[in-house]
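One example given next:
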Amino acid sequence: MNNDAAARIPASAGRQRFNEITNAMWLCQAMCAAASLGLSDAIGDAPTHVDDVAARLGLHGPSLYRMLRALAANGIFEELGDRRFQHSELSRLLGSEHPFSLRALAEFLRSPMQRDAWDGLSDAIRDGKAGFTHRRGKTIYEHLRADAADSALFNRAMLDYSLEGAAMIAQAYARFGEVSSVLDVGGGLGTLASAIARAHPQVRATVLDLPHVEPSATRYLEEAGVGDRVRFHPGDFFEAVPGGHDLYIVKHCLWNWGDDECSRILRVIRRAIGDASGARLLIMEQILEPSNLARAALSDVLMLTISAGGRCRTDAEYRELTREAGFQLGSILQLEEIAIAEFVPV
């Protein structure tokens, strides 16, 4: 059916863009399925025939080939001919042994949690409640506290999401080399605190998060080799956080909450700092601005599906929230998609 002489009528620009968007959705689903199936680990370091991959994983060979062919055509794996495949830079990130593996994050993206959140988007637009809550009848945080398996997947996914960025942050912010005590508020398993401790041996860090996170966090800190210098503190940042630290960090936490909740978190931190001389607050978030609007505005919609009130904010909105809580902006360091904003208590 390939006739070079045949006239080709191009699709309209709008239709071409529509096709690009739908293709991206399909590609994301295929990539995440590949991660869940363990294809990256099965292919390994040498070019591998699709039948060998299918045999290792107990899969249907012809169907597997169709998916690998589509992934390779889009830069995820490389097809060498004779139905043999090898890794691309992106496909290696789906492997469980990669130092900055994204496998768990990919698995989370196709989980029922994420599906239900996005399925509820139309309802969220109608009344402002989170899409997840519309589908499950509870907030995602209530769900995670009650469901150990989903909580474990969520924590692994957030670890994947943060790992490479945490290493970058630990090196980029100069004041980490000058302090001895850091508190990561809402720090999950302790990804950032661990990266800071590894990069700066003088630092002792504390990770504050909800009690149900403690077993997984303690295990992670030990496996990361920082269990002697990073400890987990179970608590609720709406109620109280420990005082006596040089730096208080809030990373990718405020965007989960509405303005009232953010103000409460910030006021709790300000109370913990008290009159301590030299203490600082670091807020690390994606800032909504014209230069990154395409990405940040979609992140903002994502938050609408997950958490009522959660949102990406502008620089001015963060300045206002922190000012009302008793902080003044000192400096901002921009790192790719995240800004590190240093605030001084006033």
Observations:
- The radius of gyration is 23 Å.
- The chain has 16 helices and ten strands.
- Strands lie at 48-49, 78-81, 84-86, 181-185, 204-209, 230-234, 247-251, 280-285, 327-335, 338-345.
